Amino acid sequence: MRGVKLKHFMLFFLFCAMSLVVGTEFVCAENLGESDRKRVLYISSYSYAWETVPEQIEGIQEAFGDEVEIEYKFMDTKNVTSKEGEELFYQSMKQYLAETIPFHGVIVGDDAALLFAKKYREELFKGIPIVFEGINDVEQAVDAAENMQMTGILESLSYESTIELAVKLCPKATKIVAILDNSVTGEGERKSFYAHEKDFPKLEFGEINAEEYTRKELQAKVAELDKDTILLYVMSSKDKDGQPYTSVDACEMISASANIPVFTIVSIGMGSGVLGGEVVSQKQMGYLAANMLKLHFSGKPFIDFHMQKNPPRQFIFDENVMKRYGIKVSKLPEGSKIVNHKESFAERNGEFIRIVSIVGAFMIIMLFVLARDNVRRRKLNETMRQAKDSMEHAARFDTLTGLKNRLVFSEELQVKLDAGDKLGLILFDIDGFKQINDTLGHNNGDVVLKELASRAARLEDENFRVYRLAGDEFTAIVSARDKDVASAYAKELQRCFKKPFILENQEYMLHSSIGVAMYPMDGATSKELIAAADEAMYHVKRNGKNNIAFFQSI
Length: 554
Prior knowledge:
This protein is an alpha/beta fold. It has four domains: 22-154, Response regulator (Rossmann fold, 3-Layer(aba) Sandwich), CATH 3.40.50.2300; 159-280 and 312-339, 3-Layer(aba) Sandwich (Rossmann fold); 346-394; 406-553, Reverse transcriptase/Diguanylate cyclase domain (Alpha-Beta Plaits, 2-Layer Sandwich), CATH 3.30.70.270. The chain contains 20 helices and 19 strands. The protein has helices at 2-22, 52-64, 83-99, 111-119, 121-124, 138-145, 159-169, 184-195, 215-223, 247-257, 282-297, 319-324, 345-348, 350-372, 377-396, 406-418, 433-440, 442-457, 483-495, 526-542; strands at 38-44, 68-74, 105-109, 130-135, 150-154, 175-180, 204-209, 229-233, 262-264, 276-280, 313-318, 337-339, 423-430, 464-470, 473-478, 501-503, 506-508, 512-519, 547-550. The strands form five sheets. It has a five-stranded parallel β-sheet, sandwiched between helices. A five-stranded mixed β-sheet has the order 14-15-13-18-19, with helices on both faces. The longest helix is centred in the middle third of the chain and has 23 residues, at 350-372. The radius of gyration is 30 Å and the shape is globular.
């Protein structure tokens, strides 16, 4: 018996030793188990706090939805630059991959992560398709794409288009100076910047390396530049003293020091003092990278995906900076997006002005007709009655969505309270709606509001009514004694957001924060009941949004 036990122990020991030897080989594609839900590993060159990373992750999550399980690893190369740091990350990844469930695909974000994936591909990621995005070093990307299981998207910032525009806006310029640093990404952009020197022979190309100057020295260097120079911000992650900068910090500092407009080719930092340029969408790069893997999971051979050299771009400019340097919208490319735009009186009150103008013109015409021909008075009176009905309708219904407005809501709620009817009051709005207006414009914001109102209105029945209060705020009255009934209607409202909203031929997934209060338990008056529902809604917002909360439960 002792011999049998010893034999079993030795077999178990040999099995464990062999498992340690093969280590990370368990992540090979041929060892992946069959599963309906794929697993993808995302490796970022930076930390989550770096401005581009959340946008890239948002695009990846939007592409995958709930169909793919995503794990995240961050190299933090903006702060960890030593070889020891890379070795530590390698060891942690090796251990992690040896212990975790195998992955079906890998996405690497920015240059340092691509270099890591290339270096350790055979050891850590053998047989797994890898998609890269946000890559500035063209040579490294081209080299990686020669591997049949590696492809992706270059960030390839839009130097040519931005410099062409800068030359038109600054006709006296004879030089162009780029703000750069010595990071891995910075070195890639340095190559790209000087590669365009041949395209603009009338400009003398130069740079200010942010890592060679202290903060004060960098400010002084920028302040020396005059109208014969085009200033282009590319990257400035830290200074001579090792002090790190975010893109927003760098843009604010450089723009405040400069006596000339600061052009840029990166979206991060827009609205912080730079004029703008043609920038790359970090979110769309993440979306495209994830979509490649998604299509591959659906059956498309990975070898059919070719590296994309031109990422999604858009011209973006800051209206505050345009005013400072006297730059008119007419001088910008058609379709440019303007941030920090301040609406004029006419823009803010355009609908009101149109209504007043129409009503005024209508009344003048009617008075003129009445003065000329009393015989047509009856017809005129009928027309006036119809106009009155129309105006009464406009006073009780929201002109944009067609839902009953705040006035009707207050009246109908008070009637139910006076009658002692038990009811549920639901308040909800659109999470991140301000970002829709800021990034896509108010017209697209109106499209979202109208579509949401249409979906919510389809839920109405004898027990449920929906109203628009203002902006993206909506409310609903549930005529029910049972809390479960109010909960069911709240969930139906939440399901209104399951279907994407189509804006400019693109799909956007939105969410809602929903608060519910019950009468009479949560309030004896309309004011108290509304306050309770409002508190429940903001409880949801403070705890991650996209959820439902009852006032009694918070």
